[in-house]
Amino acid sequence: MGKFNHLFTPIELGKTQFRNRLFAAPIGLEYYPADNLHPGDDFIAFYERKAQGGAATVSIGSVMADNARGAVGPTLRLDDPGALAPLYRLSQCISRHGAVADIELQHCGANAYHSKLGLGNEIYGAFAMTNGLGMDIPEMPEEVILETIEKYGDAAQTAKHCGFGMVTVHAGHGWLLNQFLGPDNNRKDKWGGSMENRARFINAIAANIRKKCGPGFPICVRISGAELFEGGYDIEYGKEIAKAIDGSYDLINVSVGAHEAPTVFTNTHPSMFLPDGANVQYAAAVKGVVKQSKVAAVGALADPALMEEIIASGQADVVMVCRELMADPDMPIKAQMGKEQEVRKCIRCFECFSGHFTKLSSYCAINPEIGFERESRYCDPAAVYHKRVLVAGGGVGGMMAALTAAERGHTVLLCEKSGELGGALRCERKVPFKQNLQHYLDQQARKVAENLMIELRLNTEATPELAEAWKPDVILAAMGARPVKPNIPGIDGKNVMAAEYAYLHADEVGEKVVVLGGGLSGIELAIYLSGLGKKVTILEMANDLNYSGNVIHSMAIHNELRHYGIEVATSTKACEINEKGVLGEYVGDQFSPEPPCETIAKGVLQSVISKAGLEGKRELGSQTLFEADTVAYALGQRPLRDEAEALRGCAPVFLSLGDCVQPKNVYAANSVAYTIARDLGRY
After folding, report:
1. For residue 583, is it left (φ>0), alpha (ψ between -120 and 50) or beta?
2. Average pLDDT over the chain, rounded to an integer
3. Separation between Cα atoms, residue 440 and residue 71, nearest integer Å
4. Among 621, 541, 623, 512, which Cα is nearest to 576's?
C-alpha cells in the first residue's frame, strides 16, 4: 500500500462512489461566463484541468438556485433551456476524467445585489434586515420560502440531467440559508425561533432535492462552523446547526466566516499568516457530534501528509482543496504515486483571488498554466512516460481503456474473468434491436486481440498475485457490476429470474410476464419479450419510467409500448411474489427520474406512460395482484467495488472506471475509459 492509504480510500455518498477523499472545493466562477451566462471554453478548461489531476470531485461554485431573487452577480443559469448543452459539456469534461462533477447551489438572500439592482426584482432576507449596501430588506414571506424550496429541487434536477453527479447546497458565509440558520433568526412563524424551526428551510430543500433527483443522489451542504467576527456565532452554535441537519445531507462541508464580514475573509480563505489546516478544528468539532452525515474539512490544505492525518485520525471523512489545485492540479495523482515531494504547494499569496476581482479571471503566481489551460493542453499530446498497464475487466470500459493505452504506446495486459470480451452486454446477443451493439462489441474485441501492444488473457481473474508477478505501473479496474437482487418475499421462487438471465433464456420465460423496474434495461426487456409474443407488464416505483435522459430513445420506446400493448404501473412497489404473480402496492407520489426542462422532452416523457388501466382507481396503500407466469427483475446494478478494491495497492497508480464505480451506460463507460487511459504517461 502507499503512503496515503486513508486519503486514497474511496468513499460512498448516497449511491455514488468517489474515487478518493480529496475533493476540489467549490471555488466560485473563476472565469466569468459568457454574456448569455453559459460556460465557455476557457471556463470549461479551467475545471477540466482539476479533474485531469485526480481529484475525486470538481465543484462549480455559486450557481443560483433562484436567479431572479438570489443572485449577487451574473452567474451560470440552470433555468435557461439554452444552457443545457454547454452545461452538459462542462460536466462531461469533468466526469470523463473519472471525477464527479459537482455544482454548488446558492441563494444570496438579503445580499442578492444583482437581482435587486441589475434585474430590478424584490429580494428578501430570512428576517427583516439591512444588507451590506445599507438597503432595508424585508422578511421572506412563507409563499416565497415554499417557492424557493421548489426552485432548489428544480435546479438540482436540471444539474443532474446535465450530467452533474452531486450538488452542494451553500448554507454558510452569511447567505440566505445561513441567515435562516443563524441565532438572529427570531421569526415568529415555523421558519424561525428554535433551532428546529431555523433548520426547517434547509432540511426541506434537501427533501425536495431527494424527491426530484432520487434517494441515492448525493447532496453536500456547506456551513459556517463558526462566524469568527465580533457578534457572530461560535463553534458551539455551529455544532447545533450540524446536529439539526445531520442525516438530511450526505456530506457536511465545514467552512467558517461570512461574506459580508471583511475582517474574516482571510479566515474563510486562509492567508499565509495562518497555519496549515487552519480551519480543520471546526470540521473535527462537527465530526464529533453528527451521527449520519459525513464531514469535510477545508482551508489551507496543500500537504498530502496533513490530509492523510486528518482522515486517519477521524477529524474528517473528506478533505476539500481549493487554491492548491490551481497551484498544482496534479497534486492528487502525485500523492497517490508517492511523489509528494514533487507537489507544488500553494503559497497563499492571493494572486488568484486578486485576479478574480481585478481581471475577471484567475491566475497563479507559481503555476503559469492557470489562465491558459486550453493552450497548455495541446503542448504535449504524446505520452512522455510509457507504462505497464494492467486492465482488469474486458467489458466496454475495459476494452476502450486497453486500446487507448496501447495507442499511446503503453504495454497493456487485459485480464477478463470470463471466456469472452464484451461484459454484461453480451446477455443481449439474441435481441434483434441490439445487433448493432453486438457488432460494436465484436469489433472492439477483434481490435484488442490484434493489437501487438496488448496481451489478452481470457478466463483469467486479475488478482493481487497476478499483479505482483506482472508488476504493472498502473492498474485500471473495470470490473463491471452485477444485477441487484431485491429483498422481496418470493424473490427466490422458481418463476423469478434476473433480466440478464431472461435475455439469454427467453425460451424459459412464460407467456405472461411482469418486469420489476422501469429503467432502460427493464423497458427494453419488456419490448424484447413482447416481440416474442409474451404479454408484459412493467412495475416501477417512481412516478415515471426512467429513460436516463435519452429523450429521442424515449420516443422510439413510446412507439414500441403502444405497438405491443405493454402495460405500465408506476408509483407501484412490489410487496410479494407468489406463484400467481406480483402483489403491488400503490405508493403515490415518488421522485421523478426526469428533469423539469422546458423542451420537447417534457411532452414526450409525460405521454409515454400507459398506466395499465389503473388511473384514478388506486388509493394510497392499496394492493393489486399483477398476474404473471414469470417475474423478471431489472432493479439496477451493484458495482463490483470490493473486487476492484482488492487490487488497490498492487501498483503505484490504481484507478477504477466504468460500472464498478457507478453503473451508467455505454457512452459513460467509453468516455471515462478513453480519457483516463489518454491521461496515462504524463508522469
Report:
1. beta
2. 90
3. 47
4. 623
In angstroms, how far is the first alpha carbon of the chain from the final one? 19
Give CA angle at 182 (178, 188), nearest 5°. 110
For residues 56 and 364, what is the distance between their CA atoms, to the nearest angstrom? 22
Q: Which of 78-87, 184-193, 218-227, 650-659 has the lowest mean pLDDT?
A: 78-87
Residues 499-525: b if buried by 16+ CB within 10 A, e if exposed: bbbbbbebeebeeebbbbbbbbbbbbb
C-alpha distances in Å from residue 666, one per residue of 594, 637, 673? 19, 14, 11
Encode pLDDT of 16-51 as tens digits. Answer: 999 999 999 998 655 556 667 888 888 899 999 999
CA–CA separation, 197 vs 467, rounded Å?
56
Task: Please state, in angstroms and rounded to a whole number, the distance separating the CA atoms of residues 168 and 492.
Answer: 40
Cα(571)–Cα(590) distance, integer angstroms? 7
Looking up cell 408506476 gives 570
Residue that the C-alpha cell 482488492 belongs to? 646
- Pinpoint the alpha helices (H) of 499-595: 499-504, 520-531, 551-564
Q: Among 375, 380, 381, 401, which Cα is nearest to 389's?
A: 401
Question: What contacts 24+ positions apart, CB below 8 Å, involve 340-345?
Answer: 340/3, 340/4, 340/303, 340/304, 340/305, 343/302, 343/303, 343/304, 345/302, 345/303
C-alpha 281/C-alpha 275 separation (Å) is 12
Q: Who wins on pLDDT, 575 or 669?
A: 575
Structural element, H or E, at residue 11: strand 11-13
Return the percent helix, strand and coil in the chain, to nearest 5: 35, 20, 45
For the chain, how many helices (H) and strands (E)?
25, 27
**Please, where are the H alpha helices in 457-508?**
464-470, 499-504
Alpha helices in 462-515 (DSSP H): 464-470, 499-504
Q: If DSSP codes are grouped into helix, strand and coil, which group holds residue 675?
A: helix
For 397-452, what is the HEC assignment?
A: HHHHHHHHHHHCCCEEEEECCCCCCCHHHHHHCCCHHHHHHHHHHHHHHHHHHHCC
How many Cα atoms sit within 13 Å of 216 on the Cβ side? 9
Long-range contacts of 525-531 (CB under 8 A, 24+ apart): 525/499, 525/632, 525/634, 526/566, 527/433, 527/557, 527/560, 527/561, 527/564, 527/566, 528/431, 528/432, 528/433, 528/503, 529/502, 529/632, 530/560, 530/564, 530/565, 530/566, 531/432, 531/564
3-state secondary structure at position 332 = helix
Rounded CA-CA distance 236/217 in Å is 30
Give Cα 635 to chain centroid, integer Å. Answer: 20
Question: In this model, does residue 354 exceed pLDDT 90?
Answer: no
The stretch 607-625 carries a mean pLDDT of 68
Please give the Cα distance from 582 to 627 (Å, whole number): 6
Q: What is the pLDDT of residue 322?
A: 92
Angstrom distance (rounded) from CA 582 to CA 467: 46
Q: At what angle do helices 666-679 and 84-95 cross, to 10 degrees?
A: 50
Grid cell for residue 137: 430588506
Q: Cα dihedral sign for 44, 50, 53, 55?
A: negative
Percent of the chain with pLDDT over 70: 92
- Split at pLDDT 50, 70, 90, the class of 612 is low
Q: What is the largest CA-CA distance in the chain?
A: 75
